[in-house]
Amino acid sequence: MEDEVILLxxxxxxxxxxxxxxxxxxxxxYEYKEEDLVNKKKSDLLLQMNPVHKTIPVLVHNxxxxxxxxxxxQYIDEVWKDKxxxxxxxxxxxxxxxxxxxxxxxxxxxxxxxTWCTKGEEQEAxxxxxxxxxxxxxxxxxxxxxxxxxxxxVDISLITYYCWFYSYEKFGNFSLEAxxxxxxxxxxxxxxxxxxxxxxxxxxxxxxxxxxxxKMFGLD
Length: 220
Known about the structure:
Elements: E1 5-9, H1 14-26, E2 31-34, H2 44-49, E3 58-61, E4 64-67, H3 69-79, H4 91-107, H5 109-117, H6 122-140, H7 153-159, H8 162-172, H9 176-179, H10 181-191, H11 194-197, H12 203-216
Parallel strand pairs: 1-2
Antiparallel strand pairs: 1-3, 3-4
């Protein structure tokens, strides 16, 4: 009997995109259900499956929900073991990967969002975002991927912001390619992978979404 896999998501969510890339890497078939978060119309299924946070993404595997994107990616890695692992098997390297994903989760989203979702604070948020990216670039070093030679957990957790970089730069008035050239090289390398290429939305579409949201928030 084939597994029933459902993903509750919202198309521009960098967190939902993580799950979609992980599922693609593992070759898992799933049913995608889009949530209308712009109009704050959360489905009954979402409220039922994630009653605590009421947020996406939620992976529903054979009727059982798994919430929070980094936890979902780890779950996918543990359940579908027939494809290449997303996390390293070495305990120390595994701990390091989890540390950097935790860093990304705690540091990246807030200043990125502030670049397009505030008025008068965009450039300060842009500076903060660049400094965080520089820290990540330093961690990447000369490696092709964060884990070394193979695309993995940390890469999946950060590359989903790539389609948002254009918007952050436009509203925050900075250039990531000028500030973090090696990180952009890494992003372009990741974007060549089929799982990433077919998952990330076009950066101009994300930019249009930001413009529409700014209008809704009365920022323009």
